[in-house]
Amino acid sequence: MTQTSAQSTAALEALNLTKVYGTGNTEVIAMNDVTLRVARGEIVALLGPSGAGKSTLLTALGLINPPNSGRIVIGGTPVMDGPRALVDLPAFRRRHLGFVFQKANLIPFLNAVENVQVALEINDVPPRTARQRAMELLDYLGVADRADNLPDALSGGQQQRVAVARALANHPSLILADEPTAALDSHRGRQVMELFRKVAHERAAAVLVVTHDHRSLDVFDRTCEMEDGRLRGTVDTSTAMV
């Protein structure tokens, strides 16, 4: 995917983001003048050692931990100008962002379909419509046969599929994933990464994945690397995709 097309159809534009913790002798620059664009339908890996600033960037883009300076635009809507919110952040997150974490974080007393359904109902989708869409997503991700199972009756890979379905529930323009395969073996981890590619390419969502797993990098359209709070550049990996 060319940079020109990424700019013209950007689902995410992060411009000159900086985040500083502490002051004086305790000052730590966790994110230093980071600019990143991710296009609709593009899946991007964010790499780097621990402490490089990856989680700080992800929580800033997720509108959880605002930057000290810089600008964030999601789906063409300016949402942050430095630490100043330009929209109702909780409502915007619910409607436009999807999150997947290292642990699936499913609600333990709800079954698989209910875990997806609840993400729709908090956005005022009627229960019958929410359940129908939840079942469609579970089917799309290959776990419809586990719809009535509680999380503790699902494998780790199945739980992550349900978590991806939940992240997709409200048709987000941007999905953020933080080490989503860290608790999975290589086979199940590969399956989850391929699911993210499927979601990006078939659902026209932008997907940004923080990962240490170098075994699945061919799944991504691009890889970016952070070091010492700076984004060090990107590599187009689309030619290696199968």
Describe the structure.
With 242 residues, this protein is an alpha/beta fold. 32% of the residues lie in helices and 29% in strands. It has helices spanning 3-8, 54-61, 89-96, 112-121, 127-140, 156-168, 186-203; strands at residues 10-21, 28-39, 43-47, 69-74, 77-81, 84-85, 97-100, 174-178, 206-210, 222-227, 230-236. The strands form two sheets. It has a six-stranded mixed beta sheet, with helices on both faces. Strand 5 (77-81) and strand 6 (84-85) form a beta hairpin. Helix 4 crosses helix 5 and helix 5 crosses helix 6. The protein is globular and about 55 Å long. Mean pLDDT is 90; it is low at 1-7.
Largest sheet: 6 strands, mixed
Radius of gyration: 18 Å
User: What is the β-strand count?
Assistant: 11
Average residue pLDDT: 90
Encode the helix/strand succession as letters.
HEEEHEEEHEHHHEHEEE
What is the straight-line distance between the termini?
15 Å
SSE-based structural type: alpha/beta
Strand content: 25-35%
What overall form do the CA principal axes indicate? globular
- Model regions low in confidence, pLDDT < 50 over at least 5 residues: 1-7
List the helices and strands and how they pair.
Elements: H1 3-8, E1 10-21, E2 28-39, E3 43-47, H2 54-61, E4 69-74, E5 77-81, E6 84-85, H3 89-96, E7 97-100, H4 112-121, H5 127-140, H6 156-168, E8 174-178, H7 186-203, E9 206-210, E10 222-227, E11 230-236
Parallel strand pairs: 3-9, 3-10, 7-8, 8-9
Antiparallel strand pairs: 1-2, 1-4, 4-5, 5-6, 10-11
Helix pairs in contact: 4-5, 4-6, 5-6, 6-7
